């Protein structure tokens, strides 16, 4: 993609493209973030046999990550708002790099739980920092696309992991897979500290591009207490959307390799191609979801109608997954799951953008952190539930049924709480809501 549209009809090539380099760095960080967390999911069917954990214990290992992720998200948004994205992001990735490599020392369920807990604490900083960076570097009309691009890193990471991890594990042992991903994180950290500066302090940024980035009406740069944010229905709309739908994505990450191994007998090396297909489709969905909302806006739709219209399309893409649990053909199941992951990632790009639609830049990371906390709590619940369900029944059908309905339910809740996506007036009190 060589040019991005601006309000004046000019191309970004004339204004400058440096903000898209920042977006590329966010894409790289998110890719590494998901490689780190996906290593366990890829190796899970085989580590389960080597370490000897059962479905319930694996559920506890996943829950440890989710618990730390929830705690981290509750704190990191406010920390990043206070320290800024350069330092806040650096601290987060340093923690998760060390935690990722510490998995190589684990030899028991408890050891993996401790390593996953520390990984969750560090990785919790990625999305609050990235969303805040987008809010700082992009005008509102470009944020959905920028978010969709960097958020596609979650799918790229999920593609790279099943491609890379089995080869590394078979060649050098499963411990090496965790060490390699930790080194990738540390490499990104060095590049970030050497090159990143806020827009006003970046000498490579042209005056024209800075003016474009700051083309939205100015916002007061004051810190807002969480208590004031939570008085607004707009905040609860984002929190509810994350709580209802994030658990589905966590299920995809940590249980799809086990599902494919259990239902279709795939080996460690055999998991690669189906998982790559699934997450390539998710990658397409991430960018397409952000593009679709922007396209609707260009057609003259309001931001409210465009955002929710794109979310509805994405939600409908997830519904057919209800048939995946009973598919008697591997590639039919892969297609249905891939369509659902595409729907989720397109949904996610728009849900994240809701925060910058409804909140000023200085509050975005805090709101994202609150929503991420809710999503991680939901992920904790689904992880423990899934472990007990599979240990008792071995059936994935109830899980796919919940996944297929979650997004339509979430969209209804978002619309009920924020019918017009009206910006929250944090300086006064709860913003009023009107019907669409």
Automatic annotation (TrEMBL):
Membrane topology qualifier: Multi-pass membrane protein
Transmembrane segments: 58-80, 87-115, 172-194, 235-256, 268-294, 306-325, 331-352, 364-390, 396-418
Domain Major facilitator superfamily (MFS) profile: 22-422
GO cellular component: plasma membrane
Keyword set, alphabetical order: Cell inner membrane, Cell membrane, Membrane, Signal, Transmembrane, Transmembrane helix, Transport
Catalytic reactions on record: aldehydo-D-galacturonate(out) + H(+)(out) = aldehydo-D-galacturonate(in) + H(+)(in)
Matching Pfam families: MFS_1
Cell location: Cell inner membrane
Gene3D superfamilies reported for this sequence: MFS general substrate transporter like domains (1.20.1250.20)
A molecular function (GO) term: hexuronate transmembrane transporter activity
Family note: Belongs to the major facilitator superfamily. Phthalate permease family.
Name assigned to this protein: MFS transporter, ACS family, hexuronate transporter
Species whose genome carries this gene: Pseudoxanthomonas wuyuanensis
